[in-house]
Each structure stands twice: as structure tokens, then as C-alpha cells.
Amino acid sequence: MEQAMHPAGAVDDVVEPPLAGISWAAVVAGAIASCALTLVLLSLGAGLGFSVVSPWSNSGVSATTFEIGTGLYFIVMAMISSAMGGYLAGRLRNRWSGVQSTEVLFRDTAHGFLAWALASVLGAVLLASPATSLIGGATSGAMQAAGSSQATGPMDGYVDTLLRPGNPTAENTSNTANASKAEMHQELTRLLTADFRNGGEPSAADRSYVGKVVAARTGLSQADADKRASDVIAQVKTDLDKARKAAMHLAIWLTLSLFIGAFSAALAATEGGGLRDGTWGKRGWRR
User: Fold this and answer.
1) Is residue 8 part of a domain?
2) DSSP 20
């Protein structure tokens, strides 16, 4: 009988088993467990956050400490929840017989990554639904209150500061004066909102007009009215810059926590898969 000859260095083809390379049931189970654990840790984090902040001066942590602590907690939360989801995805998947150890390692890593990805998408959907409802309700309420002088916005506090009278006891409280004040308040609110939209600021003409309105409304001298207008505009810019930096830092912390969560899920899945096959911690994996 003739013996089949193979070229030197040739490797026999490995026959893959017909079993699917992805156990979707394990991936879904890991993702659901990760989402549930994330909700638990979010509740715990909210409680811890409320316990360290205080409206009283010289009490509670500073804003910087709170921001850094929140970011670190996001990372720890992502590590714990993602690792749990990845571990379950690797531990509950089917056993692949006749598959090379390197391929098993890749599949376990993929199971952990898919569990993390599915959990992230589910979490985004769960958070987006109430957020959409809140935004829709706020928009509807704003439209209903658009014609009312009682409607408030983020610029109203600054306009109130601008129009604060120099001598409150001498302020005219008649209906005509109140109506004029409301119209003036709405006009300045619209003007400043339009100026600060898209990162702009009031022009020289708008600054001059605001100063004249403040002087006429409050009884201050023109110089004092211009100074008040400049101070309020500077305060608006400072607050907007603080909000921008806070949003930027939050986005960076969230992105970092997502990357670390993906790595934790993939690593935990390899451990779960190794324990499932009885190969975890052994150097000589079957090849």
C-alpha cells in the first residue's frame, strides 16, 4: 500500500467541529447580569455621592474631589459589572471539542467582548427611554409656558441680577410698572440668549444697550450700570466655561470606563472559559 507523501513543513488541516463558535445564550446571560449589576452599583454610587456633598459651607468634599471620585467610581463600576458579565459568558458557553487552544482563547475573548457590547447597548437603550420621555415632557411644558411671564430659563437669573433695583424700597409696584419690567426682562433674556448661542458673546452695541436698559430700570448711574452689565456677562461666560469643562471631563471618564470595561469582560471570559474546560492555570493547553 502506498503511503501518502506530504511536502516538508506542511501542516494537516484541522477538522473543526460542527458546533457554532458563539454561544449566544451565554452572551445574552452575561449581558443581562452585567446590566443588573450596573444598576445596583449605580444606586450605591448615588447614595455615596449624596452622602459626601452638602449645601453648607466648609462641609462635604470639594467639586474637584467629587468629580475625580465620580470618575474613578465609574471605572470601578465598569470593571466589576463587565467582569461579571464576561465571566458568565465564558463559563456558560458550550464546550468546543477538537478546537485548538489558541482558537478557544480567541472565542472566549470574543464572548466577553460581545457580552460587554450587548450590555452597553442595552444600558444605552434603557437610559435613553426615560431621558427621551423627560426631554419630551420638558419640551411640551416649555411650549405651554412660552406665553407666560412665569416661564423661567437658564438666563433668567442673570437678567434678574441685571435689573435688580439700586433702591428696592423705592421700586414702583403698580401693574404698569410690573408689566414694563416683565417685557424688559423678556427682551434682555432673548437678547443675551441669542448672543451666547453657539459660543458667542454680546457685541459692543448690545453691551451698550444692556447698560442703558439697566441704568433706566435700576436708577444706577451709567458707569455703574455698564459695570454691572460687564460683570454679569463675565459671570455668564465663566459659568458656561465651567459647564463645558464638566461635560468634557464626564465624557472622558465615561470613555475610559468603557474601554476598561471591555478589557475586563474579555479577560474575565477567558478565565470563565478556562474553568469551564478545566484548563485555567495550566501551561500545557491542548494544541
Assistant:
1) no
2) -
Q: How confident is the model at residue 8 (pLDDT cuts 50, 70, 90)?
A: very low
Collapsing DSSP to helix, strand or coil, 80 comes out as helix
Domain assignment present for residue 67? The answer is yes
Q: Mind listing the pLDDT tens digit for each residue in 85-99? A: 999 999 998 887 777
Give the range with max mean pLDDT: 114-118, 199-203, 205-209.
114-118
Determine the 3-state secondary structure of 81 from DSSP: helix
pTM of the model: 0.71
Tell me the C-alpha distance between 70 and 55, whole Å.
Answer: 18
**Farthest-apart Cα atoms in the chain, separation:** 119
* Lookup: cell for 227: 459695570
pLDDT at 234 over 60: yes
Residue 195 lies in a domain: yes
Instruction: Compute the distance between CA of residue 18 and CA of residue 37 in angstroms, rounded to an integer.
Output: 34
Are 139 and 51 a contacting pair, CB within 8 Å?
no
Interatomic CA distance for residues 270 and 280, integer angstroms: 8
Q: Give, for 14, the enclosing helix (H) or strand (E).
A: none
Cα of 163 vs its chain's centroid, Å: 36
Q: What is the C-alpha separation between 115 and 24, in angstroms, rounded?
A: 9
Give the list of residues 6+ apart from residue 51 with CB closer than 8 angstroms, or none.
none
Q: Cell 411671564 appears where?
A: 149
Q: Show the cell assigned to 119.
A: 450590555
Q: Which residue range forms the structural domain that includes residue 223?
A: 156-240
Do 106 and 72 fall into the same domain? Answer: yes
Give yes or no for a contact between 38 and 123, defined as CB atoms under 8 angstroms apart: yes
